[in-house]
């Protein structure tokens, strides 16, 4: 009887509240969709938004401690779920990003005639998986959370039925993610065979002293395959090929969601397996991630540099390549953790950068969603003259782009880049710091080029100041109109999303120490 009792453990539902609430609201939406008439379907969007806000608020009671659940009866300190400071900060980022995505989506779902029930169910299901992942402390839960976050995202990308680009984007995203998951599962199975455990703390302990050289070889292969799987999820080069087409083909709010929440999922998982699971292999994954960081930021920024406003290139594709470049910056502190005596500081740098990037990048996607309402192609040239039509929106987008570039008045972007740069220097990675500095200069060009487009005359070309044709196809003979009609009112949810992102960016630029102090608590 005592043996049976020892196997029974209580579940800390308060610690589980953030992902559980998101999942519960997703189920409520799925059921409500069966009974609501078509005219009442928009109500589902507001239920989803309220559910995400409630899930985010459920983090507040957890701030005063480190709560754990699903622990091994024989080892109470070895648990599968930990609501520690690292998990809470990433959950805040994930749920906040999903909330902004929901605000962007309310009008998109209606305007593009997307199936409301499926859309909101999939978005909240993905957010639930994304909120579960940073609190996962064993490899099985980690993989399950990653797939719960990823599988609904495949469907969301391809939800524009009848759209060839959307279908192709979903297929590329699906195939690349399935390949990444297969590689990761193979690595996890190798690690389990070598160490006899799936819990990260026990795996880390076992890896320090494997009795058989053959087991050591098996464990090394497992660690390498697991890291390769996460490299796909973080869009690190050369595993980034799915990003541009996926972002362009997906509904615009989902592209923004993938660029922020998808990255948070991949990077939090990468931090957990490297810093907590494989600290004894730091001499291997540290240099490997440093090379990946240099390659990723260079590939992303050089490709973004090729997106020319004069050639009708897509603004969303530019944001996609920019997202790859930003992933390279996010990898720098994780690589530095492999060289540092205290990896917690480096982890905090990645989290600080991710928090800044989430706010301003979703703000840029919010403005892109607004422009797409009148210019579905969403070319960079479609932003020409935006200041003369919507001055506040143009100033907001200019501010977001300057934050991403790391230029004043986007002080928070500058501080985040300095923090990442300092992590590389402190770890002795001077060569990586130099490559990062070069890439920051490259990124300045395309961010500033897009910013200047906002303030040009509506029919003014980049070089001569002459008017250019505005027909749908290149070379169309339709002349530019003499004037512009008064812009339509911005939908309230979209305006709220832009305002929230701008407020966060301005507040953090005025007091960047807030995000740095907040992120410094994200220690494992």
Structural class: mainly alpha
* Biggest sheet record: 2 strands, antiparallel
- Could you report the average pLDDT, rounded to the nearest whole number? 85
Helix and strand pattern? HHHEEHHHHHHHHHHHHHHHHH
Strand content: under 5%
What does this structure look like?
With 524 residues, this protein is mainly alpha-helical. The chain has a domain at 280-464 and 488-524. Helices cover 69% and strands 3% of the residues. It has 20 helices and two strands. The chain has helices spanning 2-6, 17-35, 42-57, 85-111, 116-132, 139-157, 164-195, 200-207, 213-233, 243-249, 252-277, 282-305, 315-337, 343-372, 386-389, 391-405, 411-426, 430-454, 492-510, 513-520; strands at 67-72, 75-83. A two-stranded antiparallel sheet has the order 1-2. A hairpin with a 2-residue loop joins strand 1 and strand 2 (75-83). Helix 14 packs antiparallel against helix 17 (411-426). The two termini are 37 Å apart. Mean pLDDT is 85; it is low at 1-6 and 462-484.
Structural descriptors:
524 residues, mainly alpha, 2 strands, transmembrane helix, cell membrane, translocase, NADH-Q_OxRdtase_suN/2
Nutshell version of this structure?
It contains 20 helices and 2 strands.
